[in-house]
Design brief:
Blueprint: H1 15-21, E1 27-33, E2 39-44, E3 60-74, E4 77-89, E5 99-101, H2 116-128, H3 133-140, H4 144-160, H5 175-200
Parallel strand pairs: 2-4
Antiparallel strand pairs: 1-2, 3-4, 4-5
Helix pairs in contact: 2-4, 3-4
Protein name: Transposase IS204/IS1001/IS1096/IS1165 zinc-finger domain-containing protein
Pfam family, one: Zn_ribbon_ISL3
Organism: Nostocoides vanveenii
Length: about 200
């Protein structure tokens, strides 16, 4: 076969792998599959000049930090992102920021366990597929609390956003209303019974 059919050529990053994984700003350096079929995708940013986030002085490279994240399932498999983050040191002795690690809010929040993509995938499963958090955590291969802690702030922010009602002109009646009416009826019957007993006594 012609070499043009190859996806990856040795000696650098692969644009096709990066496109497939779809984490903007990060490049795929390795993909591995474990004995259970789960994928681990190792990613890193390209070497670049980095300024200190506090003082702006050009920082010096200071090693790497590896962060493992739960990602949304792909190709019927569980996926882990292994992000090899660059650590930097600020050379300015007067700067309060001694060292810092690169961040990318579009990929994951600082100290997060799930990627942003995994969080929105989970919320989509709740909304469209009526999945439970327990079912979602099974698909992701992680814990219930891990999933809930990751998606709860996003759900709270969406709930607090008044823009979610823009364009809404009609509200439907659902089973909640029916249950509410039934509860009121039972309370009314109970109160009548109590009054009847009190009157008879």
């Amino acid at each position: 076969m012609s070499e043009l059919t190859l996806c990856c050529r040795g000696g650098g990053y692969c644009d096709r792998c990066d496109l497939l994984v779809g984490l903007d700003g990060l490049r795929v350096s390795e993909v591995a599959r474990d004995d259970r079929g789960a994928l681990t995708v190792t990613v890193e940013s390209e070497p670049a000049v980095m300024g200190c986030p506090t003082c702006g002085v050009v920082a010096h490279a200071h090693g790497r930090v590896v962060v493992d994240l739960v990602d949304a399932p792909a190709f019927g498999r569980r996926v882990r992102i292994r992000w090899v983050k660059r650590r930097w040191v600020c050379p300015d002795p007067d700067c309060p920021t001694a060292t810092f690690v690169e961040q990318n809010a579009a990929v994951a929040s600082p100290r997060a366990t799930l990627t942003v993509r995994a969080c929105w995938w989970a919320i989509g499963q709740l909304r469209r597929e009526h999945a439970s958090v327990n079912g979602i955590r099974r698909q992701l291969g992680t814990g219930w609390r891990t999933v809930w802690a990751a998606i709860k702030p996003l759900l709270e922010a969406a709930d607090a956003d008044p823009a979610r009602f823009e364009g809404v002109t009609t509200l439907g009646v659902d089973e909640h209303i029916v249950r509410h009416e039934a509860l009121l009826f039972r309370m009314e019957v109970r109160d009548r019974h109590r009054l009847a007993v009190a009157a008879a006594g």
